[in-house]
């Protein structure tokens, strides 16, 4: 996702560092949509954004749709922190 935005920013005359600064300030979460067989869109993955050691923004997968439900990925804790109590799953509340 950052690479696509870099290409658009370059065409608009914005340099890479400026784009990543704007990106970090504007977005926290990215939803990746896919079309199912009937043509409807559904969420396939949820990514959180974070800056790397060089200051560039990278995406970190937080949730991925498995066979029947979302599967937590390495960015889950960050997503949960961003969402607060709204980010709890039913099984988390039962523990």
Quaternary organisation: single chain
> So what's the overall shape?
flat
Largest sheet properties: 4 strands, antiparallel
Number of domains: 1
N-to-C SSE string, H for helix and E for strand: HHEEEEHH
Walk me through what this model shows:
The chain is of the alpha+beta class and 95 residues long. The chain has one domain (2-85). It contains 4 helices and 4 strands. The chain has helices spanning 2-11, 16-26, 76-83, 90-94, and strands spanning 29-35, 41-51, 57-65, 70-72. The chain has a 4-stranded antiparallel sheet with strand order 1-2-3-4. A hairpin with a 5-residue loop joins strand 2 and strand 3 (57-65). The longest helix has 11 residues, at 16-26. The chain is flat. The model has no long low-confidence stretch (mean pLDDT 90).
Layout: helices, strands, pairs:
Layout: H1 2-11, H2 16-26, E1 29-35, E2 41-51, E3 57-65, E4 70-72, H3 76-83, H4 90-94
Helix pairs in contact: 1-2
Key attributes of the depicted protein:
single chain, 95 residues, alpha+beta, 4-stranded antiparallel beta sheet, 4 helices, 4 strands, 36% helix, 32% strand, flat
Summarize the structure.
With 95 residues, the protein is an alpha+beta fold.
